[in-house]
Amino acid sequence: MTQANNDASRKDWDTYFMDIAYMVATRSRCNRRHVGAVLVQGKKLLGTAYNGAPMGVEDCLEAGCMIVEEYALETVDGAEKMVKKERCIRTIHAEQNLLLFTDRNDREGSTVYVTDQPCWTCANMLANSGIREIVFHRPYPKDSEKVETLMRSKGIIFRTIDQYEPPAKTSRAVIS
């Protein structure tokens, strides 16, 4: 095989690291969403994390989800309407676990690849963590606009991978 043919079949770095994030997400035992995150500096993988209950605590598969109900004002078919939402509060998000288990020095100037666009809380934490870039695949429309505004104001590169297909059997259906 020639060098040109070898390079053409080789995955680009974004795909490579996002594939790893999706593989990490398979460790999640959350019933609602599997999320994985990886910390990268240059081309060096520095850490991985996924969403789940705190270590040593029964997770959602063992104890059930710890659901809270919230109401949000949303526009549905052109009319504002109160919509009931449910969210699990047992789970620590992948981005939060990544920050808990990596060093600040490693995060300075690094990139985080995450399967899902960070929520508002995770975005705030990432914005204060020293990273310079966040790359994600699946959107999280609820917080998208304010998260993008935050990242712009902090000078953090915030981008999605549009033409990406997760590795087989790693993409778990998402419950809103």
From TrEMBL:
Keywords: Hydrolase, Metal-binding, Zinc. Belongs to the cytidine and deoxycytidylate deaminase family. This is dCMP deaminase. InterPro entries: APOBEC/CMP_deaminase_Zn-bd (IPR016192), CMP_dCMP_dom (IPR002125), Cytidine_deaminase-like (IPR016193), dCMP_deaminase (IPR016473), dCMP_deaminase-rel (IPR015517), Deoxycytidylate_deaminase_dom (IPR035105). It comes from Paenibacillus cellulosilyticus. One of its GO terms (molecular function) is zinc ion binding. The keyword Zinc applies. Residues 12-158 form the CMP/dCMP-type deaminase domain.
